[in-house]
Design goal:
This protein is α+β, with helices and mostly antiparallel strands and 193 residues long. The protein has two domains: 94 residues; 88 residues, no CATH class. It contains four helices and six strands, in the order H-H-H-H-E-E-E-E-E-E. It has a six-stranded antiparallel sheet. A hairpin with a 7-residue loop joins strand 3 and strand 4. The longest helix is centred in the N-terminal third of the chain and has 39 residues. The protein starts with a helix and ends in a 6-residue tail after the last strand.
Length: 193
């Protein structure tokens, strides 16, 4: 058997590994993107229940495949690096609230015009790219949008000109600045009337 035949045989034998590593990267990348998109437009715990185990499973398969994969071949190192780079980029984007900011840029004018009217919703609907579960007007004139099933943050609140944000401790709702007249809001569990 010649050296050339041995090299050809080795290339054919390593192709399945390349396909499995690439498949693992595609599955992981799809899950990261799905988590980021759902978290931005309609935060829901179900997305995390689906996405995190899939990303972890793909990560475990990547570790197993990387152990048997010959990274010295042309393109081998870059193929192995794709998946961890996608996951790290996804984590950084989530920490910086990048998907939510992009969704906000796309939807700001539409959601602001709805907030100025502040009509109650009969059923959940899309406002811009946000899935709004409920719209309600607070006693002080604030228009609150409950967006998805957020954990920790219950939605966005619009304070029309002239309406002041209640100081911490004076309301059952805590407001943090978001953009201009918009604030994130969350209910404070230990508030007693």
């Amino acid at each position: 058997m010649t050296v050339r035949e041995l090299q050809r045989r080795e290339r054919v034998r390593s192709r399945p590994w390349s396909a499995w590593v690439a498949s693992s990267a595609v599955i992981s990348g799809f899950s990261v993107v799905l988590i980021l998109v759902i978290e931005a437009v309609s935060p829901d715990f179900v997305a995390w229940l689906y996405g995190v185990p899939v990303v972890l499973g793909a990560g475990i398969s990547w570790i197993c495949l990387a152990a048997g994969f010959d990274a010295s071949k042309p393109g081998g190192r870059s193929l192995l690096a794709i998946q961890p780079v996608m996951v790290v980029c996804g984590v950084v984007a989530a920490m910086m609230h990048l998907p939510e900011r992009i969704a906000w840029l796309v939807s700001e004018s539409r959601i602001t015009s709805v907030a100025q009217r502040c009509d109650r919703l009969a059923e959940p609907r899309w406002v811009g790219v946000f899935r709004v579960e409920e719209i309600r007007r607070d006693r002080n004139g604030t228009c609150e949008f409950r967006i998805g099933d957020r954990l920790g943050v219950d939605g966005l609140a619009y304070f029309p000109p002239g309406v002041q944000v209640p100081p911490v401790g004076e309301s059952s709702t805590r407001y943090t600045p978001f953009d201009g007249q918009w604030y994130r809001y969350e209910f404070v569990a230990d508030y007693i009337d």
